């Protein structure tokens, strides 16, 4: 069992009730799951999710709590395991119930709830909460966020978080790494994106492995531009809120549009 | 400025007063430094440390608080920046005041105080505290710790934390990475070692870049064996508490002695 406490999320009072309730439900379900299940049980793959990958028990337990919030508000839900639940609403909650599930199930204290409210296909508000500590980042599209990116424009000497390398993108991974001053792999995309948004690191990227799903990027698509940064795909594909979760992107989340383009260029070589 | 709170360390009551007071002093100084200085001021390199690398303002502020504890107890101190302070005592406090300084100064919430009490050259007790959250890990040499490693013996499929790669160890870094199921770079050696000790990850290694100093490994040398694991150097060099902080190792911290040897073998190729 993982003995460490799970902090209540510190949710800004201005957050939309759907996002606030979803984050609280995720945190409560996350805590309950850790109190009832050991490492192996949390990580047990008990189903295949809508994104085509295996779902861990922890993902399903937390997603179930979020699904109840969407149902109570009679809005659509697009989430990692359950896929798209269409209630005919103009509003969709796009959620990654537990970003960094492998971290969370193992006990590495780096995992997050990430939710975005999408109206007619456009993300309009986002809330990301670091489940272990309760730190939250909230943003509304088109309004300045209460945090700012580092403002960095150059990859040379930057601090960059990356997805772990795979054989299929080894050379691209090294091209980015060899130009950065610092490289981290925290294995929690949504939390790493918020570290970019608040200026603690300069960028976060999938160096061309096409691993990202839209649920990994939706909250960042609101929060990072609101903080002065940019989110794009390495290969220039539009980041679309698509119910088909088998679609993949190589997301770049950066302190400035210029840095995002530089990283995409380095990945493409 | 970094706005997030710094939690008080939750120090086990059985910890030696020197370690308990040093951890509390480190946490208090860390909090004060973040309240007074912005990112750039915390990271400003204001001196050259005893390990031959530049000392950041944050390191010096926290080390100064720890040095007062060692002085009050009239014991020797071996610490990253100040080097060896010899008071003729049989006991030395070996400390890394802020492990993961670059994280801490940037705002990435992964940094730790790590201290070991050394008697006549042998580490006998250790305390590591994650400064951001207050989580602490305590151990006494020769006694079982209240946490256990994962017990994993094989590198193939393991979860491994690594120091970031350098051009000089790129191939060795990749050899380890290509056999592991998960790879992380958290950039905080002492905290990563404790994640191995508590079984949240299987191993942490410097893949042959000879970056580790003894202050990065001393606390792990007590805590990890007490939890069932092993600490060794990739090239078989003895891990010695040496006042000369320019000496370097490539440490491997693993869930079992067998896994430590497998990783060392993979690094050497």
TrEMBL record, chains A, B:
Gene3D superfamilies, per database record: 3.40.190.80, Fructose-1,6-Bisphosphatase, subunit A, domain 1
Pfam families cross-referenced by the UniProt entry: Inositol_P
Domain of life: Bacteria
InterPro entries: Inositol_monophosphatase-like (IPR000760)
Name of this protein: Bifunctional fructose-bisphosphatase/inositol-phosphate phosphatase
Organism (species): Saccharopolyspora taberi
